[in-house]
Design brief:
CATH class: Alpha Beta
Largest sheet: 5 strands, mixed
Number of domains: 1
Helix content: 10-25%
Strand content: 25-35%
Strand order of the largest sheet: 2-1-11-5-6
Number of strands: 11
CATH superfamily: Oxidoreductase, molybdopterin-binding domain
Shape: globular
CATH topology: Sulfite Oxidase, Chain A, domain 2
Radius of gyration: 15 Å
Number of helices: 5
Structural class: alpha+beta
Distance between the termini: 32 Å
Length: about 160
């Protein structure tokens, strides 16, 4: 078992904020997310993200005609696993679209990095493989519209500053 996977599996036994994923591991699969913070890059493959504790939301969005179910780790757990800290998170999509997510949203709104939609991995055509998802239906009305703007799909990087 790789060191990165072992570190993440420890999440089941310790608080996620105490998890640190090694910044470089030769045994990782295809990298799907890179977290840049404090001059360091931490790379995640899908298996490492799936090993973090998962959260599931059934939500209504402006992108789908019906409520959909998203599943993935909390953004704050991904940031903790990377040892990332700051005040802003620049979420970057594969097409270089960016959204500036206030760091406190990760804690206040239980934002997830969705890996699955309706139980299936998301293809790039379905906004995947990673999608920043807020618990839209549980947000205060004044925050709901803003959260749609911050929901980056085809996510491949987080720049924390």
């Amino acid at each position: 078992m790789s060191l990165a996977v072992a570190a993440v599996l420890a999440a089941a036994f310790i608080h996620p904020r105490e998890i640190v994923v090694p910044a470089h591991s030769k045994s990782l699969g295809r990298i799907v997310l890179t977290v840049d913070s404090q001059g360091r890059q931490t790379r995640f493959d899908m298996r490492t993200l799936e090993a973090l504790p998962q959260r599931t939301y059934r939500v209504t969005t402006p992108w789908y005609l019906r409520p959909v179910t998203f599943r993935g780790p909390l953004l704050r757990d991904v940031l903790a696993a990377a040892g990332a800290g700051g005040t802003h998170i620049e979420a970057v999509a594969v097409n270089d679209y960016t959204a500036d997510i206030p760091f406190e949203h990760a804690e206040a709104y239980d934002v997830i990095i969705a890996l699955r939609m309706d139980g299936k991995p998301m293809s790039p055509r379905d906004k995947g493989p990673l999608f920043v998802v807020y618990p839209y239906d549980r947000l205060p009305l004044e925050m709901r519209e803003k959260s749609f703007e911050l929901s980056v799909w085809q996510l491949d990087g987080l720049r924390v500053r």
